[in-house]
Design brief:
The complex is a heterodimer. Chain A has one domain. Helices cover 67% and strands 0% of the residues of chain A. Chain A contains 13 helices and no strands. The longest helix of chain A is centred in the first third of the chain and has 35 residues. Chain A starts with a helix and ends with a helix. By secondary structure, chain B is mostly helical. The longest helix of chain B has 27 residues. Classes of the chains: A mainly alpha, B mainly alpha. At the A-B interface, helix 5, helix 6 and helix 7 of A face helix 2 and helix 3 of B.
Chain lengths: 350, 171
Amino acid sequence: MTAATVMSGLLAVEVPYWASAIIKVGVVALVVPTAALVLGYVFLLKMMSFMQSRLGPMEAGPYGTLQLLADGLKFIQKEDIIPAKADRTVFALAPLVVLVSTFLIYVVIPTGPDAVVAQLDVGIFYALAVSSLSVVGILMAGWASANKYALMGGLRAAGQLIAYELPLVLAVMGVVIQAGTLDLQKIVTAQAEGEIFGWGGIGNPFILTQFVGFFIFLVAVQAETTQPPFDMPVAESEIVGGYQVEYTGFRFLFFFMGEFGTAFAFAALAAVLFLGGWALPWGDLTHWGFNIAGPVIMLVKVLAVAALIFWFRFTYPRLREDQLQRLAWKFLIPLSLVNIVITGIFKVVL
Amino acid sequence: MIAEHVAFGIIAAVMVASALRVVTTRDIVHAALYLVIVLAGVAALFLLVGAEFTGITQVLIYIGAVIVLFLFGIMLTRTDFDQDTETDHKRKLPAILTALLLLAVMIGALVDRFEDVKLDANLPGGQTPQTTAQVSDKLFSQYIVPFEAVSVLLLAALIGAIVIARREEGG
């Protein structure tokens, strides 16, 4: 019995609906914290340290790999403080709304021909829609804390996320026009099977034709995850952490996981949309082996995109609110509209 | 079909309960948050009948944008923390009458039109009854004129809003 028949046998096993649902929820529930840990360790702790000529955490585990786990345990031990004037229910629900929004994005990200939680006809549209839910959680946090810094942080976050959601969606439009589908799986196959003027050596990753879209997408992602240089909503030197100011212990941990989990999810979306996702342009895309190799290929591409995002994060100083809004409305949105028009013309002509 | 009926029942019950809380709660931010649950319920109902595109648009537009603007507006205009965000319920009676009238009109119209229409739930291979491609094909061929008319209407509303807002600002 070859490995292929074992694999196809495994895939053919009829799993009852409830069991497959539980497995899928379990997978997503495991992936999000792991993703947050990986990004936090590799980039936030180590890459930033090296860029600043220091070592970063070295004590917890080899090369400090267990530092974030130790931090997580510390957060869980902390006292759960809710301000006296806070709206208790809304205050408690807010981090959950943010985290659920993050979890929901992972549902459609494909990592292999069958290795996807749910293949939706409207994949990328769904991902962008659920990612916009986190704003509600952030506004809830800002309002329920009954703290003026928190409220200002919440308002800044809302203004920023509304402004940058438009370039984010419009940047994706170019890819959607070129692939002719919203389905993330089909976007992956379109790139792997694509040809550059009849030459199929490396497929046709959309970054080659949609480099403007890729750039806009990355900038918008940076703003959507409120990372520096777009960290006005949490600017610690101005509003002491913004909407997170009253949160302690595991509730703060939720926000932390939400931020890094979303960064990872958006990096994965960028890898799918612009870098060809889990596929390599050689070989049979329906081969079962891609279900095992796919996640690895994806991880490499995701880390490459994440490295770019965090490189920006550590290099540029914080933008002022007016500069931030001007960049979105007067530069990124017109640029992405031009990109859509040009892509549309090429789509019709070619 | 039983699973769909149960799901519909649960979603509908949650929606009705939240909708009642939207109008009975005294805190205006809570009202907006209950409205989120109602709108999420609408999206869930769309998904339940297989209208994926409409369901997800519902989430993106209503929860991701409209509610966020509501909350943004409420929080931006409320400057003092000790000030109440409580709403008064002075015009309770006319509000109830209007709501009941609207309910009667909508029930009448919906029952009249969809009394005998049944959704075909047994599509082969778990297909959705209506794919996004079909929606856009219809929208940009058969319904292109209404679609463009709505676009122009929205643009006019947008420009109008900006003009009114700027005039007040300039004094």
